[in-house]
Design brief:
- The chain has a single domain, classed as 3-Layer(aba) Sandwich (Rossmann fold), CATH 3.40.50.
- It has a 7-stranded mixed β-sheet with strand order 3-2-1-4-5-6-7, sandwiched between helices.
- The protein has 6 helices and 7 strands.
- Helix 1 packs parallel to helix 6.
- Helix content is 37%, strand content 21%.
Length: 193
């Protein structure tokens, strides 16, 4: 069994996909970490009886100090891995070094193209022939870590940006829980990824 922490700041659709996929299995979501205590994802965590930790990123606090507090919370809950699911803060080496190759992120484009915010729109508007998702390990850069999985579809299969968003979210909600589960399996068996 392995414990997962999910970091999220928004509506929580990927949080729900992962939490629901892990429910009843050998692994569990031990805590939701959020920087937005009023985000819809918080209610989704409460509905699933998942603990919520508010990371207090208020102004004038050093990010490394906030992350040390997060690490204390994750240690207390014996978390083995972190999945970023729309967490709108860039992690520093403080937390990345504490969880090497055990922090994963999902990005709604085929990296390295369209890193950062606005990826779906940027990818769609660029004229790329393939649109899709990337699941990757987190390193010190923004969307630059080693790629675990990429899944795509042909741009000609969607009529407009809204259809592209729906297709990308469907890929996210299918593949992200699967990859997270497989990584938790590897971790709990003592294997290196």
């Amino acid at each position: 069994m392995a414990n997962l922490a999910i970091f999220a700041s928004g509506t929580g659709s990927n949080f729900v996909a992962i939490a629901d996929a892990l429910a009843g299995g050998p692994h569990r979501v031990a805590v939701l970490v959020t920087d937005k205590p009023d985000a819809p994802v918080v209610e989704r965590a409460h509905e699933r009886d998942i603990a919520v930790y508010h990371a207090d990123y208020r102004p004038r606090r050093a990010r490394s100090e906030v992350e040390r507090e997060i690490i204390d919370e994750l240690d207390r809950r014996e978390c083995h891995m972190i999945a970023l699911a729309g967490f709108m803060k860039i992690l520093t080496p403080t937390i990345i070094d504490r969880f090497p190759q055990r922090i994963v992120n999902i990005h709604p484009s085929l990296l390295p193209r369209h890193a950062g915010v606005g990826a779906i729109e940027n990818s769609f508007n660029s004229g790329d022939t393939e649109l899709g998702i990337t699941i990757h390990f987190v390193d010190y850069g923004v969307d630059t870590g080693p790629i675990i999985v990429q899944r795509s579809f042909n741009r000609s299969e969607v009529a407009d940006l809204q259809a592209a968003c729906e297709r990308i979210h469907a890929l996210e909600h299918y593949w992200y829980p699967k990859v997270v589960h497989d990584l938790l399996d590897h971790w709990s068996q003592g294997a290196t990824v």
